[in-house]
Every structure is written in C-alpha cells, then in structure tokens.
Amino acid sequence: MTPERLSSLDASFLYLETPAVHMHVAGVSVFDPRDDGPLTYDDVQRVVEARLHLVPRLRQRVLSVPFGLARPLWIDDDRFDLDFHLRRAAIPSPGGRFHLERAVGRVLSRPLDPSKPLWELYVFEGLAERRTAVLLKLHHALSDGISGMAIASALFDLAPHAPIGTPPAAPWKARPSPTREDLVREAAQDLVLHPIEAVGHAIGAPVRTLHALAETFAGVRDVVDMGAPPAGPFDTEVGPARRFAMAESSFARIREIKRVLGGTVNDVVLTAVAGGLHDLLEHRGDDTRGGTLRVMVPVSIRTKAERGEVGNRVAPAVVDVPVGPLRARTRLQRVRRATAQLKDSSMAVGADTIIGLGAYAPPALHSMAARLASRGRWFNLVVSNVPAPQVPLYLAGAPLVANYPSMPLGERSGLSIACTSLAGTMAFGLTADWDSLPDVEVLARGIESAVDELEKAAAAAPSKRRG
Question: How do the domains of the chain map onto residue ranges?
C-alpha cells in the first residue's frame, strides 16, 4: 500500500509550527464516576489498546521528502510504543476547575514530538466529585475539529455497559517505509503529473471549472474587501506558554435561545463570546463603545462522502462582532446581520481554493506562503464551534459530562475559543497566550453571563415567539 501524502492544508499546519506556536488541537473530556468508582488510567489504557486499530493514523508518523521536493507522507511508525502516547497525570486533590485548567495549560504549552505519531492522551485523576478528565491532544496536521471528534468517538460508547472489545488477534506490523530513492522518484512524478491532471480536469469540465473560478474570484474579492481588522487587545506576538479556561452552558438553553430569538446556534455562540469579550475589556478599563473585533470562524467544507475521514477540510471566514455595551438581544441581532452577510459571500470558497493552490506549489514556496499568511493581520481571534451528537456518551462505563476543546494560536493572535455541544453540554475551551491574557478567567465567566442575559431576553420575548 502506497503511503499517503499530506494534503496541502494538512502540510500547512506542519509548516506553521514554531517554538512559540504549537499547531495542536485538543479536547478535555470530563467524566463522572461509575457506580463502582471513578474512571482510572488503567480503564482508559484498556480501551485504547482494544480500539487503536480503528484509527490507523494514530500509529503513523510524518516522513519528510528529501530536498523538500514534495509534501511529507504519512508512514507507519515501526517503533510505535503506546506507552509513549498515554500519560498518567494528577492534580492536587480534590482538584477543582482552576487546578485542571492550569494542568491542561501546561500540556498545551509543550509541542508534540515530530519524530513520533502526532498525538498524546493524558488522564487526570483526583478531580473533585470523584471525576476524571481525559485530554486528547492531536496535531492539526492530523485532524480538524470534526475529524478529531471522529477519533474521540472511537473511544466513546453509547451505553454504560458496552463491551470494550479486544485488539485484532494478529499483532500489528508496520508496513515498510519507502526508500530515499523512492521518495525522490515519486516526488518528481508528482511535480510533473499534478499540474497536468489539474489542466486535464479543467479541459474535461469547462463549464464547472469556469463556475468554480468565478466563485473563487468572488471569494478573494470578499476577503480583500474586508480590509484589516481594528486593533485588538490580543494582537500580540505570542510566546510558548499557554493558559486554558473553561466555560459551559446546557445545549438545551442555547437551542431555546435560538428558537425564541432567531438565528442559528452559531449566532448564539458568537453573541455569547462577544458579550464575554465586552466584560473582559470593561474589566480592563477599555472604552468599548461602538467597538468590534474580527473573529475568524473555521467553516467545514467536508462533504457527506468525506465524513469520518481523518484530516482537515475547513476553510477560514471572518466576521466582525460587536463588543460594545449592548443589550443581549441587540447584540444577537447585530451578529445575525454580520453572519448573514458571511453566508451570502463566497469568502470560504475563495479561501479554500487559495489554500488548495498549495497542492501545486513546491513545499518550500508553500511553507513560505503559509507563514506569510499567518503573519498577516486578518483577524483578532478565532472562534470555532464543532457540532456534536446530543446523546449520552461513556468511556469504560463512565458518563461524559462535557468536552472542552482547544485550538492553536496564531503568531500574532493570543486568543482562540472553541466549543462543542457533545453529550448535551455546550462547553467552551479558551486557549490563551500566558502573558497576553492573565485575566482569561474573566472572559470565561463573561461568556456564561452573556448566555444568562440571552436567556433572560428570550424569556421576556412575546409569548407568540416562545410558543
């Protein structure tokens, strides 16, 4: 079987890695105890051992091509050792929210080892209420938020007494790695064949190609027309250390707010974040009147046929959100207008095509372009909402309470916010540069307060809207 080459977007995340910018995503899953006791490291280890074969990518590492002639490959790691990737951790007992957040921040501050498969899993025992937290950390080259959820789902069960299963009877054996000569030869073939294939595709489907080009140019125009965002408090060169904070609400509350006040779940999420940002800036003594911040919203372009695949299928789009002193309902209305304009634009299509052009660029130029794009001031922060199933989930019989995701920071963007509604809890994970946001906790509590204000606005809405 021929090793798989990284896509241009997946490779971009490798190229963006620096000593200060760690391009990994993560999810902190918190579990209640079972009837017979809390979830333990040994329980998690048994599940991973039994199901590792369901996600072959977790046994693969990245292999670079000599002279940078082509994008790297995924190859089996012939020295794979599960003990390296599973980490037992503990926090002072009884560990509260703050202790868990600090422990997660320390893990997020460390890069993944590029010579190994690009993931780690930590089990934090000793939480308050006999809870246990499991942190799954993956390089962004391996997974976007949606496929990361697919990886995590291999560990979760839909029933508390579901069988763990057993690993395949035949022991896993790594496939031989390609030789240096093979790598160079295949890279040379790719340099010749890929542009020819692209041209052949265009000739074979001229109408479809012209339509795609029109959408792309429209998307590029939309991106350019936005211009640079207003200066933001998080527009700073980041260091390697991270802070992490958590916020949450029941997904039922978010959905009811959407139903009564209109818009989408993502509109409610962006409004809550905007309200939290207002609280943070007010806490700092900043004048927020009429203020906006530009949010980069990753948009999934994964087709139905691509669901369940590992890898990245997202395109960036940006939207300005109001952070001034506004009533909750007014803030939501303004967010809805902004996202409606985003839906009518071709921004995500254009951005995806720009990213896709890296498939035909030499890796050296691709790497340079990725770094230049990341250093541009296109947005102030990232907010990513990853949809998830609204059903009870279990790990080795322990019920999942919530999953708090983490997204990487940009070179000059000191804050990213991700959320997911897994198992009925809309859980927000706030990842921040250590020096830029010592008050990230204020933002976390501000997001929760903003949801409370939206709920009050929904309760005060005319009964015909609530019926």
Answer: 205-242+250-380+431-466
